[in-house]
Design a protein that fits this description.
This protein is α+β, with helices and mostly antiparallel strands and 144 residues long. The chain has helices at 9-18, 25-35, 43-51, 59-71, and strands at residues 40-41, 76-81, 84-88, 94-99, 105-109, 133-136.
Length: 144
């Protein structure tokens, strides 16, 4: 795990190198935004954040860098629904609520979810993890 605080460019570069990612200026800019706080961000939102007041980073570079950072274990890709993928800077074991009304993704502590049984795994594979996304929708009812 890495610290969740604003990181300097040299710190971001070092973090990327330690995970086998070459620190280009574009990757450093993307990683700096991702790691400044715990976040669930779409590629489009990250593209807007990275380019706010900074030199232009292309959408392709954002998407490619997100894929590389997920592959290297620096972030997690969370598929909230077929049209919404979030990138999560929290790589510790946890699950999510996805609010279909607001589009918000919220962490659930791993200890709050119990998976009691899994089917037999296909031959020749090993379990890499279990990701639970609980989809909710505002009912319009208020309590009280």
């Amino acid at each position: 795990m890495f610290p969740i605080r604003p990181l300097s460019d040299p710190e971001v570069s070092d973090l990327l190198r330690r995970h086998g990612v070459g620190p280009t200026p574009q990757r450093v800019a993307i990683a700096r935004v991702l790691f400044e706080r715990r976040t669930h961000v779409s590629a489009e939102e990250l593209y807007r954040r990275v380019n706010a007041g900074r030199p232009h980073v292309s959408k392709a570079t954002v998407y490619n860098t997100l894929g590389l950072l997920a592959e290297k274990g620096l972030i997690r890709a969370v598929i909230a629904d077929p049209e919404r993928v979030f990138y999560d800077s929290n790589t510790s074991p946890h699950h999510h609520f996805y609010d279909e009304t607001t589009g918000e993704l919220t962490d659930i502590d791993a200890s709050d979810v119990q998976v009691s049984r899994l089917p037999p795994l296909p031959e020749g594979v090993e379990l890499q993890g279990i990701d639970v996304v609980i989809r909710v929708r505002r009912s319009g009812k208020t309590s009280g």
